[in-house]
Specification:
Chain B: Belongs to the Pal lipoprotein family. The structure holds two protein chains of two kinds. By secondary structure, chain A is mainly beta. Chain A is built from four helices and 30 strands. Chain A folds into two domains: 47-177, TolB, N-terminal domain (Rossmann fold, 3-Layer(aba) Sandwich), CATH 3.40.50.10070; 188-453, TolB, C-terminal domain (Neuraminidase). Chain A has helices at residues 11-30, 63-81, 106-110, 159-177, and strands spanning 48-52, 56-57, 85-87, 118-127, 130-139, 147-156, 188-195, 198-205, 212-213, 221-226, 232-239, 242-249, 254-256, 265-270, 276-281, 288-293, 300-301, 309-314, 321-326, 333-338, 345-346, 352-358, 364-370, 382-387, 392-395, 402-408, 414-420, 429-434, 441-442, 448-453. In chain A, strand 22 (352-358) and strand 23 form a beta hairpin. Chain B is α+β, with helices and mostly antiparallel strands. Chain B has two domains: 51-123, Immunoglobulin-like (Sandwich), CATH 2.60.40.10; 134-253, 2-Layer Sandwich (60s Ribosomal Protein L30, Chain: A), CATH 3.30.1330.60. In chain B, a hairpin with a 3-residue loop joins strand 4 (78-81) and strand 5. In chain B, helix 3 crosses helix 4 (195-215). Classes of the chains: A mainly beta, B alpha+beta.
Chain lengths: 456, 255
Amino acid sequence: MLRLKRTPLPRHAYLCRLGVLLLLLVGASALHAQEGFKTETSSGVSNIRIAVADFKPASADPQTSAFKHTFDSTLYADLANAGIFDIVSKSLLPQATPGAPAEIRIQQWADAPTSAAMVVFGNFGVQANRITCNGFLFDAKNLQYPQVLAKQYNEDATDDSARQIAHRFADEIIFRLSGGSQGIAESKIFYVKLTGADKEIWQMDYDGANQHPLTHLGTVSLSPRISPDNSRLAFSSLGRDGFQIRMFSLVLNRMVNFSAAGGTNLSPAWSPNGKDLAYSSSRSGDPEIWISDTSGGSSRRVTSFRGPDVSPVFNPRSGSQIAWISGRTNLPQLYVMDTDGSNVQRMTDGGYATSPSWSPNGQFLTFAWDRKYGPGAPGGQDIYVMEIATKRWIQLTHDGGRCDFPSWSPDGRHIVYANSPDGRATHMKIMTMLADGTQKHELTGAGADMPNWSWK
Amino acid sequence: MNAMQTGIRKTLVIAATLISIGAVTGCHKKASGIDPNALGPAPAPPAAAPTATITADPLSIDLGQSVILNWRTQNASTVTIDGIGDVNTNGTQTVAPSTSTNFHLTAKGDGGTTEANVRVTVRVPVAPTAPPPADNDMGSEAAFHENVQDVFFDYDSYDLRPDATTASSKAAAYLTAHPAIRVVIGGYCDDRGSAEYNLALGENRANAARTALVNAGVPASRLRVISYGKEKQFCTEENESCWQQNRRAQFSLDK
């Protein structure tokens, strides 16, 4: 997930920031989870101290103020969410609001109390129903050539446009300051929304904004999984003959064909090349993992053990392995195998494990696990991350109620998941956190479940 | 026609002669008995008794459809069929009876009289008020649920308990007695654990119940399985008695 060879900025300033990210994930695996260790983003290395100025209004249009407010707060949140910045409190910023490179006195921002290493500023205006926005990223430690980034945006004047511009600019900043890791501010999250007795598939931005329905099927739909290219959404839906895999085209904005099969068919998963779909099917009696093409043809069975086999997920890095949940030894456990069914390896040593998601770099699995599951057992279902090579794990959620359906962000640094504080299914809401378990916050209210983060 | 009648008469005369000779000579089994072939000109054989067959195709029809009668006789001079009247000695006729009918054929000839029968069954649709025939009987909803009872499972298990096995025999007997009934078997789980895993588990539970019925003689084609996992709950409290209610295979009439 970290491409170290790409460091477009002066090395002396940013190498340490790479260390932060390395610690965040490599550190997570290197330390013994079983000894109760919990990773920290701040262990020994500081985040990049960045000052984010409110943009300067560039027009007198009455819409400017509202849209600019959306833009400013979205940009601020995106950078705060990224997990690699230490954002300077707005009360410590210089009084003047610079709108252009000629207007900024960078030394002011480098000095105490601001003490910023990086400064984000720009101008934002609305003219003739178009938003015009110029954004700049300056290196406060490089007084001679401070400009790192300058971007210009021109979009329709809507609240959503203001938000999307902020996401795109934030991703540019994160890409440059994270050593080449793609930002996630433009990514989407697909999820299940409880609507009365039904469950429909909804979509939202990665920060919880712009929540809206995709399906209107009037039944129970589960397990949305977005294709790697964001063009199609596979899920499972209850019809007259039980649950079947269904396919929704985000390009055509309607359902498209996926051949029905006998039995219960559920929990689809895309291969990273977007050509195959793995899912659980009981067409031959026992629920097993099957792989077919993306319209349901050319299907072949991968597993063959008595007991439920569900929730497959491809290794997004190689495409040659599948992690999934199997009940072949009674309580469901996490397993990994090659896509041809060979090299089956059990990953968890007990309890009740469900809902795996594979990290984008292929090294980690996150999943929900109740390690003390049983009749009368007080165990809680929490989110865990396991390093596949060593099977060592860390626990990311604690005492927050039932957690399920973790899903990695495209940059591998965040995990979105569902949480119900009192364990009730109707109280499930969607939360996000950094992959070390810090910075948890809600994205939705109650009645949202099974989040799936887009691949890009 | 005259020639034929003459022939018949001649035959009768010869037959009478033979009978009288037989009476005179007695019925002694003698190799030296009179050889008819030795009696001058060859006599005609005695008048044979008529034969008659009648068939209908098809043998059963719905009201308003027709049937082809086909009859063949030999040695008959007059042939009649009840309800139709005199007919040719061999022939076919299309009829459309409104009720089930016995077609009675009488063939008379010089050798006697022969009868033949064929019965054509006419299926008359029953009036709506009439009780339905037994093989459409779905039974009552209440009787179904009394005899085909839901089965319950231990947590994270899809093995049938001993009491469920007994219940399956009773259910199978009822279903065998009501061959028109088709059944949906729903698989359910309590709301703990993962939604996806529970859908697979529910499938296994419903399949276990289905297998028990199939083993007890219920045709698999009459049984349909749907897993609802934990998506539909019978009871929503968080305690063991409620969870138990939700861990079940439910039988419903597949209407």
